[in-house]
Amino acid sequence: MSLMVRGFPVLPGQEDAARQFVAELTGPRQHEVSDFFRRFGICRESWHLQHLPHAALIIVVSELTDKPEVAARDYAESQHPFDRWFKSQVCQLCGVDPDEAPLGPLTETSLNWDGR
Question: pTM of whole model > 0.85?
């Protein structure tokens, strides 16, 4: 299992649209979302909206069955209709093009403590 954490900036004025995107993913498109995650080897994912003084971030935590690089390559190359819609939403809300940066903005792990 691989754990991946990314922070996506929410572009100014897009916070309500981001909430609507999540509502669509957890509502009428939830079956497509389940298929989407399974196709890319994601067994668990959570999104967290964090408010900063001058911006907002969506922090995404993903647990994958494969290496992130494998899922990222497949995601970037996918032309599946739902995937194209999903990627266009991400680009519109965050300014991150998943075809160019499928893992999202570059993230550096600065602390990784394991108490086992």
Answer: yes
Burial of 25 (0-12, 13-18, 19+ CB in 10 A): middle
What domains, with CATH codes, occur in the chain?
2-94 (3.30.70.1090)
Per residue in 48-103, pLDDT tens?
999 999 999 999 999 999 888 889 999 999 999 999 999 999 999 999 999 999 99
How far apart CA 8 and CA 87 sit, in angstroms, is: 13
Cβ partners under 8 Å of residue 26, min gap 6: 33
- The tokens for 38 are 């399974």
**Residue 109 CB neighbour total at 10 angstroms:** 8
